[in-house]
Amino acid sequence: MPPTNADVLQGTLDLLILKALSVESMHGWGVAQRIQQISRDVLQVNQGSLYPALHRLEHRGWIAASWGASDNNRRAKFYRLTATGRKQLQSEVATWRRFSSAIELVLAIG
Amino acid sequence: MDRIRGLLARLRSLWNRSAAERDLDDELRFHVAMETEAGTQRGLAPDEARRRALVTFGGVERYREETRDTHRPRWLEEARSDLAHACRLLVSRPGFAAAVILTLGLGLGANTAIFSAVNAVLLRPSPFADPDRLVMIWETDRASGTHHEPASWPDIVDLGERSRTLQAVGAMMGRDVTIVRPGSGDPERVTGLAITPSLLSVLGVHVIAGRPFAADEGHAGGQRAVLLGEDFWRSRFAADPGIVGRTIMVDERPALVAGVLPAAADLGVRQIHERADYSEAFGAAHVDLWLALAPSADSFPRETHPFLTVGRLAPGATLAAAQHELAGIAANLERAYPVDAHRGVNVESYGSAVFGAVRPALMLLLGAVTLLLLVTCANVANLLLARTAARAREIAVRVALGAGRARIGRQFLIESLLFTLLGTAAGVALAFVALRVLITLAPSDVPRLDTASVDGRVLAYTATAALLIGLVFAALPALQMRRLDLQHTLKSHGGRLISLGRSARRFQAGVIVAEVALTVMLVVGAGLLLRSLWRLSQVDPGFDAGRVLEAQYQLPATRYPVDYRRFPNLPAINAFHARMLAAIRTIPGVAAAALAGSSPMDPGFTNSFTIVGREAESAHYPEIRTRFLSPGYLETLGVPLLAGRAIDFGDDAHSPNVIVINHAAARRYFPATDPIGQSIRFWGNARRIVGVIGDEKFRGIDAPDEPAVYAPVAQAPLQQATVLVRTTHGDPMALVPAVRAALRGLDPQVPLFGVEPLALTVRSSIAKPRFDAVLLAAFGAVAILLAVIGVYGVLSYTVTERMGELGVRMALGADRWSVVRLVAGMGVGLAALGVALGVGAAYAGSRLLRSMVFGVTTTDPATFAGVIAIVMATALAASLEPALRATRADPMQALRAES
Known about the structure:
By secondary structure, chain A is an alpha+beta fold. Chain A has helices spanning 13-23, 28-38, 47-60, 83-109; strands at 6-7, 26-27, 43-44, 63-69, 75-81.
């Protein structure tokens, strides 16, 4: 385990899940792994937040779920991005960019 | 689309909770399995990998809880928990729950049942086209003061031809007939209605099989045709459409079955017959057979008035315009024809002719059940107030833990709706039973009541009422809650009550007072009607109906002709009656037997008459009831002979015409002279009075005695006779087979009908007052029950609330008796105020019952006194238990609780 890592920031988990699923549909464990992988293990997804978040997104209609077989042939619940979810991802990405550049700006001036 | 999918997922998880839970378990298990696998790939032993995976994962239950939270909207989740809470409350206080549900069930059930009746009778659509355009055309007679006399055929023709405000007219008259169905040899007596072919188009009813009458059907020499009533067609012809076009025997002559009319087509026929002055009662609820009738001025001359006439207003014409125009035409007829002297026309809407008699009664009933529902609601409101007060601690705890007012309000709403829902369910179940009882008990002349059912409209009505009640009941405790003192309530140990504010207290007291007042009104009404019923049942009908059987037969004109040229010598008819009387007198077990023109409970008909020697004076007398009897009549019915002699076997067609008169006729027309030996002239013959007999209540036992003459059966053109037989002992119905056999022995084609014990006829004649009294008494009883629950509920609450104070009083030396007096005094005081108000209202309102009471005034002091005593005693009884409980207040506990 790398010495410096961070739990996913409150509020950004939704964005990360949507981004992870925008590439391909996958199960919950896969989503966690993907986020960790892409962030080079900087971001740790807490399972305690992951599943509630997945279900919340499902109920909002941003992602949809179906049962299927995993690579090693286990029964797993696969999530995929819906059309609404894709739009939502775009707007969240835009929001995040605005937000992070604003923070950068503040830090640079400070 | 995605929103919908999300919503579906949410609903699925809400309703199929275990499946959603299982899915979640599977998903989490998969996660742990993957984590474990990843561990082994990193080189860990499988057991260690699994252990680490589980540790990283943490408690599964936590995820479940958090994930579950996303499953459903918060309000739904809370509503669910509120409902569960309400159910627990309901179960934990079964007595309270039962009282509320039962009370609501009674109120709503009575309302639903009565509304079902109102719906069926008054609100359902008419079977007729454009029913508001239909009018009844009655003749009036200024000489006798009648306004609802059937019309003569020539008058109908003249009115119909000259009128511009009437589009068309049709006429009807009840005419029971004997039929023989194809393939069955047995004659049957059925209820017939003779109508002009035009009547069907005037009413706008259509056949459901075959065709309506042709315009020329019913003419003297023409085709005889009939239409079957739907019910009759179903019951006797098994709804066989093949009967149309075939021939059945009607009064021994063939008639073509042209078609079938729907069951609803006879709406109002019976009521119109009953509304008419001088019309034979139409006894049955429905028409079995519709007969085509094309009257002529020869068969129905202008001086006979048998026709009930229905007209349809021309487009644009109003009832008032028709009345005005027809009155003018009638005035012309009066000038043109001497027999139309004193006659006029009365136009009445068909609806008021049919429903006029029943609408006020139904509205009264609806009013009574609405009062009952109000009492019910007041009661439940009171129970709820006391209940909420007792739940102060529970509510305070919830408020302290952060429940908002909206949340608490919703809790009340859900509890209230749960109660109302259960109460409504109980009410609807009760309504099904009550409606059946109502239909069975109700007088049979209420139009369409037999079709009453708890249908969609009725349920919508009940649901609306229930919803309103539920919302009001939810609002009450929420309002009460505003007075909740959080600090105080939480600090006290005993679970202090929300003490009611001045206004709530006043409301509670007001509810009790109003409830008692309403109860008094209902019970006074019931008391008056019950006393009337008692009086009615005590009336001497003028004859003894015990052990008497009555039955009727009709001689067909084909073989028993009435030839008025030879009248009263009608050999076939006279011989038949004589042989019939002889036959029934010899039946074993018969104590006495006689023939009559009609049942002693049948008003029969009237005739104009003159007294020989006083012609000028008697020309202005009203018509007199004309009845027939055979020798043995007085013995069979126990009617007293007051003067002269009775009719005997010597009074036949070959001896001088004689009559007996009743006491009322003797008093009215011979106040100063001896009637015996005087003569009365009617039907063109003078008849000598040979005797005076007691008055029979043939117009109904609540009607005053009316003058009547009784002619011998042997001197009358009597085609329809009533058999009266008294048994020596036992059930008179046991004689029916022997009487039937006697009749069949004389003529197998003549059926016996109208068979019933005379005592039953008498009892049925007061079915309506009995029904009214029983119904109102039932309401009264329920109201008393509710008042008891109400008084008890409030006192019970008050005692609980004031336990401390009462304890202190007793600690300071008050004796038990004074505590009892204090508590019971509150109940009795409120009841006394309610009784005072109720008596005042009943005194003012009971005049509405004036047309329904008999033998008592609507302000009968005995009834009022009795009701006051009953209600006060009941209130006292309801106060006793709380009062006695108050004496058990423990002074020590009271003092501790107050500190």
